[in-house]
């Protein structure tokens, strides 16, 4: 009993540490000053090296070899994650980092919709209500009602940039959900899948920096190295180790640490503070996402609320993390 509690506490510390580290990702993307595709390529290249080194050091290198359907699934999810990271990094140039991170983390509801349509999973009234609350929270969190703090009209270039950024975030959120669904069906270990995603990205995007030019400033390489080693290698390992020691319900709650950290870092580094309505929106999203994963278990609740957890209720996992 005591050993189980100690394992859970250590898992919580590992996962919180990984989430806090991911909260600084946007700063590294912004400070590198590189095109989003160059940043994604560097993250994939250095991330593959870091994760490969970890696999070798822990005796898991042989597990990285995939064949047949597993290899095809890994390559497909890798392509989706390259698209996801590209959209997210491009959005950071248009909207505040914290806002972009919050919008991307609406992906569990994309996953719920995809699971219902693709896998014919039942969706309870509780989940539909949670989705409606989350959508309201999303609208408030994006600052659409307040212009993100600036009275930019629809024809204003700044306003158009925000609209583009939010659209990129929603598209990234959708690809995140599709990649998660495919990854769960493939049944590949998270570390192996993440390594293959990075390898696919490094190969697919190799031509981009060669054609458009590699960074010349040493500082830029430092930020890009951090994206791969810190935010892909170290952060993912911390998350994997933490999740292995925690129940699914605790994982779902702790996933809110990442967007919360991104909001605090965005405020501390760039002075991007949320107004009252945006804070309310973030709170509504967090409450709705938690509620959708933890349906009521009262004796008179509909049977669909008490059924075994489905794929759409397990939308957490760093195998499809931004």
UniProtKB/TrEMBL annotation:
The chain crosses the membrane at residues 12-28, 40-58, 70-91, 97-119, 131-151, 163-183, 190-208, 220-239. Residues 11-141, 164-290 form the EamA domain. Residues 293-322 are annotated as: Disordered. Keywords: Membrane, Transmembrane, Transmembrane helix. This is DMT family transporter.
């Amino acid at each position: 009993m005591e050993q189980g509690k100690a394992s859970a506490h250590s898992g919580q510390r590992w996962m919180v540490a990984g989430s806090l580290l991911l909260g600084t990702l946007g700063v590294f993307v912004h400070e590198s000053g590189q095109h989003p595709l160059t940043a994604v390529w560097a993250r994939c290249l250095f991330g593959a090296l870091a994760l490969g080194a970890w696999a070798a050091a822990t005796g898991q290198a042989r597990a990285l070899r995939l064949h047949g359907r597993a290899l095809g699934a890994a390559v497909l999810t890798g392509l989706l994650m390259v698209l996801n990271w590209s959209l997210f990094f491009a959005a950071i140039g248009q909207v505040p980092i914290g806002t972009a991170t919050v919008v991307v983390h609406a992906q569990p509801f994309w996953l719920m919709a995809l699971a219902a349509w693709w896998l014919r999973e039942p969706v309870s009234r509780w989940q539909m209500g949670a989705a409606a609350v989350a959508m309201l929270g999303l609208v408030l969190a994006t600052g659409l009602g307040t212009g993100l703090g600036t009275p930019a009209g629809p024809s204003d270039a700044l306003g158009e940039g925000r609209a583009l950024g939010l659209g990129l975030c929603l598209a990234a959120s959708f690809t995140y959900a599709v990649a998660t669904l495919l990854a769960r069906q493939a049944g590949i270990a998270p570390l192996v899948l993440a390594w293959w995603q990075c390898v696919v990205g490094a190969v697919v995007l190799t031509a981009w920096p060669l054609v458009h030019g590699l960074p010349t400033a040493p500082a830029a390489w430092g930020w890009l190295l951090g994206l791969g080693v810190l935010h892909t290698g170290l952060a993912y390992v911390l998350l994997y180790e933490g999740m292995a020691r925690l129940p699914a319900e605790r994982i779902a709650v702790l996933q809110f640490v990442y967007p919360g950290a991104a909001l605090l870092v965005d405020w501390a580094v760039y002075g991007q503070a949320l107004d009252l309505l945006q804070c309310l929106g973030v709170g509504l999203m967090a409450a709705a996402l938690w509620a959708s994963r933890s349906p009521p278990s009262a004796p008179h609740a509909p049977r669909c609320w008490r059924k075994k957890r489905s794929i759409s209720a397990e939308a957490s996992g760093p195998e499809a993390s931004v």
